[in-house]
């Protein structure tokens, strides 16, 4: 019997999480996507289906190291600062099916330190 890939398992977990985690205009969703080279974060209003704020390690002004914990911390700080500029202080954290460990945890902690409430 063929086994599911790690990404298929992650997507199943992500679907299960998304049944409960919804972004509202008052409290949008902070969604995280992690690739081998980079990490991406978006603040999304699910009612309108719009991305309000986004940040990633692949941007020109971002750090070179997007695939490690230091890069994730910078992206978390950057997305929190951009959210603050738009008047967003509270978000719901969507880990995207990834374990809350390593780069995902570093991004969340950096966003909290920069002033976002989860």
How many helices? The count is: 3
Cα-atom radius of gyration? 14 Å
Q: By helix and strand content, what is the structural category?
A: alpha+beta
Helix-strand topology string: HEEEHEH
Shape: globular
Number of strands: 4
Strand composition percent: 15-25%
Q: Give the strand order of the largest sheet, numbering strands 1, 2, ... along the chain.
A: 3-2-1-4
Mean pLDDT: 95
Distance, first to last CA: 41 Å
Helix content: 25-40%
Largest sheet report: 4 strands, mixed
User: Unreliable runs, pLDDT <50, ≥5 residues?
Assistant: none
This entry's quaternary arrangement is: single chain
Structure description:
32% of the residues are buried. The termini are far apart. It is globular and about 50 Å long. It contains 3 helices and 4 strands, in the order αβββαβα. A 4-stranded mixed beta sheet has the order 3-2-1-4. It is of the alpha+beta class.
Quick rundown:
The chain has 118 residues and is of the alpha+beta class. It has 3 helices and 4 strands; from the N terminus they run H-E-E-E-H-E-H. The relative contact order is 0.20.
Secondary-structure blueprint:
Blueprint: H1 6-18, E1 29-34, E2 39-45, E3 50-56, H2 69-85, E4 92-94, H3 103-113
Helix pairs in contact: 2-3
Question: Keyphrases for this structure?
Answer:
alpha+beta; 3 helices; 118 residues; 4-stranded mixed β-sheet; 35% helix
């Amino acid at each position: 019997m063929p086994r599911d890939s790690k990404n298929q398992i992650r997507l199943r977990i992500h679907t299960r999480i998304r049944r409960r985690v919804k972004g509202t205009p008052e409290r949008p969703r902070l969604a995280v996507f992690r690739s081998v080279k980079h990490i991406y974060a978006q603040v999304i209003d699910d009612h309108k289906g719009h991305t309000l704020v986004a940040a990633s390690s692949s941007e020109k002004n971002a750090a070179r190291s997007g695939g490690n914990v230091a890069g994730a911390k910078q992206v978390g700080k950057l997305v929190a600062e951009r959210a603050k500029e738009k008047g967003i202080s509270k978000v719901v954290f969507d880990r995207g099916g990834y374990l809350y460990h390593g780069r995902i945890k570093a991004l969340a902690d950096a966003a909290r330190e920069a002033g976002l409430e989860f």
